[in-house]
Amino acid sequence: MTPSLFNSFMSVTILTYQFEGSYLRSYLDIKDIKYTVDTSTLDRGLKLGQLIRVCQHKELNKIGKHRQSLASSLKKDSKKCKELGTNIYNYVRNIVPTKASDILCTTFKDAWKKVKGKGYTTSFLSHNTKATNDYAHKTTLVYGLNRYMDVPVKKYLESQGVDVNESLWALNEMLQWIFRSAIRNGEPIDIYVPNTRMRELLLEWIEHN
């Protein structure tokens, strides 16, 4: 995107969320495009964090106890993929019994063919899906991965003097995916986030929202 696009107007208003953790903020900084941030918002009187029930089952979460667990290396780890699949089956059948049409799962696309199993085979939605209401009826979610920025992108941003907040970026990516579900309609959801790092980011967000 060329900076002249922004400079063609007297002002540009962008509606976004948690701007500080976005690629957009990094882009504007690199291109020295001046901006101000208005944090005022409409108060819908709804505490969204209260609508999210996070799985705290110790045995199911053991697979992601290390902060690097379920990162991109999962794609090549057939044993971990099989274990994750077993955990997902246990979660959607025994912990939070849910019919297949109400389940939404994600992990790395290359890992899904090893993870998918009976009862949730057709529940996959790519982790970078945005701007769709097609899954607003889904009430039981599985976020089975650990998100990090692409290394070349992160190195480029840092080389340009950008203060990269990778944790906030990862949280934003996860929230975007979660908000494809029934929570966008103000309905409660259950979610299994086996990785410790991603689960802690979500729980901290819930506490303040």
What's this, in brief?
The protein is an alpha/beta fold. The protein is built from 8 helices and 4 strands; from the N terminus they run H-H-E-H-H-E-H-E-H-H-E-H.
Describe the model.
With 209 residues, this protein is an alpha/beta fold. The chain is 36% helix and 7% strand. The chain is built from eight helices and four strands; from the N terminus they run ααβααβαβααβα. A four-stranded parallel β-sheet has the order 1-4-3-2, sandwiched between helices. Helix 7 packs across helix 8. The model has no long low-confidence stretch (mean pLDDT 93).
Give the topology.
Elements: H1 4-7, H2 23-30, E1 52-54, H3 58-61, H4 78-95, E2 103-106, H5 109-115, E3 140-143, H6 151-159, H7 166-178, E4 189-192, H8 196-207
Parallel strand pairs: 1-4, 2-3, 3-4
Helix pairs in contact: 4-5, 7-8
List the total number of helices.
Answer: 8
Strand arrangement, major sheet: 1-4-3-2
Mean pLDDT rating: 93
- DSSP, total strands: 4
Strand content: 5-15%
Oligomer: single chain
N- to C-terminal separation?
Answer: 33 Å
Query: Strand count, sense and closure of the main sheet?
Result: 4 strands, parallel
Low-confidence stretches: none
- Give the class from helix and strand content and strand pairing: alpha/beta
The helix/strand order is: HHEHHEHEHHEH
Compute the gyration radius: what is it?
18 Å
Indicate the overall shape.
globular
Give the helix proportion (percent range): 25-40%
